[in-house]
UniProtKB/TrEMBL annotation:
<dbReference type="InterPro" id="IPR000276">
    <property type="entry name" value="GPCR_Rhodpsn"/>
</dbReference>
<keyword id="KW-0675">Receptor</keyword>
<dbReference type="GO" id="GO:0005886">
    <property type="term" value="C:plasma membrane"/>
</dbReference>
<dbReference type="GO" id="GO:0004984">
    <property type="term" value="F:olfactory receptor activity"/>
</dbReference>
<feature type="transmembrane region" description="Helical">
    <location>
        <begin position="140"/>
        <end position="158"/>
    </location>
</feature>
<feature type="transmembrane region" description="Helical">
    <location>
        <begin position="272"/>
        <end position="292"/>
    </location>
</feature>
<feature type="domain" description="G-protein coupled receptors family 1 profile">
    <location>
        <begin position="41"/>
        <end position="290"/>
    </location>
</feature>
<dbReference type="InterPro" id="IPR017452">
    <property type="entry name" value="GPCR_Rhodpsn_7TM"/>
</dbReference>
<keyword id="KW-1003">Cell membrane</keyword>
<feature type="transmembrane region" description="Helical">
    <location>
        <begin position="98"/>
        <end position="120"/>
    </location>
</feature>
<feature type="transmembrane region" description="Helical">
    <location>
        <begin position="204"/>
        <end position="225"/>
    </location>
</feature>
<keyword id="KW-1133">Transmembrane helix</keyword>
<protein>
    <submittedName>
        <fullName>Olfactory receptor 5V1-like</fullName>
    </submittedName>
</protein>
<keyword id="KW-0812">Transmembrane</keyword>
<keyword id="KW-0297">G-protein coupled receptor</keyword>
<feature type="transmembrane region" description="Helical">
    <location>
        <begin position="237"/>
        <end position="257"/>
    </location>
</feature>
<keyword id="KW-0552">Olfaction</keyword>
Amino acid sequence: MDSYNQTQRTEFIFLPFSSLRSHQVHLFLVFLAAYLVTLLGNFMIIILILLDSRLHTPMYFFLSQLSCLDICLSSVVVPKILVNLLRQQYTISYEQCLAQAFFLIGFAGCEPALLAVMAYDRYAAICQPLHYAHLMRSKLCVQLSVAIWLWGFLDSAIHTALASRLEFCGNNNVPHIFCDVPPLLKIACSDIWVNELTNHITSIFVGLGPFLFIILSYFLILISILKIRSNTGRHKAFSTCASHIAVVTLCVGNGYLNYNQPSAGYSIETDALISTSFCIVTPMLNPLIYSLRNKEVKGALRKLLSCWKTAWY
């Protein structure tokens, strides 16, 4: 029986692609364009933070971590999609599927924790300005960054290890656009109660916990802002938080839609669209949100372009 099951799970087929064969050229161009914009925007943020000394602060250190996560999250999914569209073979091997799920869950799990740390940074800057240098000292920022990555991939290792024990009994049609644990659970023929219980427990710590921490941080920030007497001071405080709030809303909204879809009522095409939004659209929009709403980032970009122009001519 074990050898039979092993032969039945050597390859998976992504069903959304099979139902969209007539649009594969358009899909390829859309995915490629979105991926290139994601890489360009996030690498631009990282380069600006590295080159401009004015951006060597905890806030921008964690922003560079967010850009790195966005690049990694998108790169786990999109290249395989592009290859499948070119080959017109919408498949992935069992080993590649588990590897994709491992890195996807790892990077996705890091993001809520990172956004929570960024919220704490804004709290420290606005509510504890006299102690900010101590609260967000460089050594602590590095330690928090390492803890975030370890946190995400510990969660990923647990889910992937449990998923590797699943049996599929010949059903290799994945109703999703990439490999993730929830769609694999839908087609598994073995007992999945341990996997589902683990999903519920870890979602509290990895997703809900950071989200509640963010809400608490901004509640305290709001109280501090309302105590500021000058309108200029209030506007400046709000502006430092606006980009982060927009990214949190985008991340939480897309994450909720991707992992909490109703069991009925969604077509495969709709599911693929939501998945695309979670792993491609969000990483693409994050650098745009920060660059368009952040004067320091725009100033660093103008300075860099000016230096390039002077060097070129």
